[in-house]
Amino acid sequence: MKEVYEFLKKCGTYYLATVDGDQPRVRPFGTIDLFEDKLYIQTGKVKEVSKQLQANPKAEICAFGEGVWVRIECKLIRDDRIEPKTHMLDNYPDLKAMYSAEDENTEVLYMSEAKATFASFTEPARVVEF
To answer: What is the DSSP letter of 102?
Structure first.
């Protein structure tokens, strides 16, 4: 899991795919946090991505860097506790201009049932589950 965290952190931007009815939706994300042995992302509850994940928590994440890409199949589970929100915002202080750990909008979600596949054109694929 730490390898996945470090890879996503180094990439900076990754792409999150959700399902909206029968239509896939993909958008760039940039938050990744390791808290209590879980990988978390952050968004706002008012956003469509949040509504899509509450309707269907299955998601995929994809990132590319230095000739290697990772695809992560997972469920993203909302955690409404203040502690993971605070941890996330402390690690991304620029977000504090838009979000607060105490507001009703800030949402953090952790990866559950995750399977990360690292691949490249020069090495065999490698899977990390967490």
So the answer is: T
